[in-house]
Specification:
disordered N terminus; 45% helix; 4-stranded antiparallel sheet; 4 helices; 2 domains; single chain; 3-stranded antiparallel sheet; 26% strand; alpha+beta; elongated; PH-domain like
């Protein structure tokens, strides 16, 4: 249903006491696969152009560049994106990790969330079935966090809304009349 569950618990040292990890996910596999195919197709076109354009030295140079672009694309879309974008829902907050060598972890408490927006582009709708979810918090004019290119975005949005309402109901119970 959701992206494959990660084999290691990346979030263990980032959770507070009494906090439980409910769900973790990454950039959608369909998005990574689509982008890999597009970039490999571009590399093949570059190699074909290199074969038919210019003299022998230019041909080999463009083919070398195309092979390098294909290798880079494969590494980027199969490994780097998985390692660079991770998302988690806990019983108290949303955690967003971005970056590879230089990482930042964004923590958004459920009690501060005011808006959860799903943004789908035409390419997302037609080819990847993924979308971005933007989170806005109280007291901020800009989006505080983004869950990028995730699969099943409306299910994730419903889960975030449900957790937000549950957290608020538990934290601020209404008084009986």
């Amino acid at each position: 249903m959701y992206n494959r569950i990660m084999k290691t618990n990346y979030w263990a040292d980032k959770l507070n006491q009494g906090e439980n990890l409910l769900q973790e996910f990454k950039i959608g596999n369909s998005y990574k696969r689509f982008m890999l195919y597009v970039s490999l197709a571009g590399s093949i076109l570059l190699a074909v152009a290199g074969f038919f354009i210019g003299n022998a030295l230019e041909n080999y140079f463009l083919i070398f560049i195309a092979i390098g672009a294909a290798i880079f694309s494969f590494c980027y879309f199969t490994y780097f994106l998985d390692a660079s974008y991770r998302y988690a829902l806990t019983n108290k907050r949303i955690l967003i990790m971005e970056g590879y060598l230089h990482t930042k972890v964004i923590s958004i408490d459920y009690e501060t969330i005011t808006d959860v927006k799903v943004y789908e582009t035409l390419i997302n709708k037609l080819f990847t079935k993924t979308a971005n979810i933007f989170l806005n918090t109280a007291g901020s004019q800009t989006m505080e966090g983004a869950l990028r290119n995730i699969e099943n975005p409306y299910e994730i949005k419903r889960k975030i809304s449900q957790l937000t309402e549950e957290y608020r109901a538990k934290s601020y119970p209404t008084k009986a009349k």
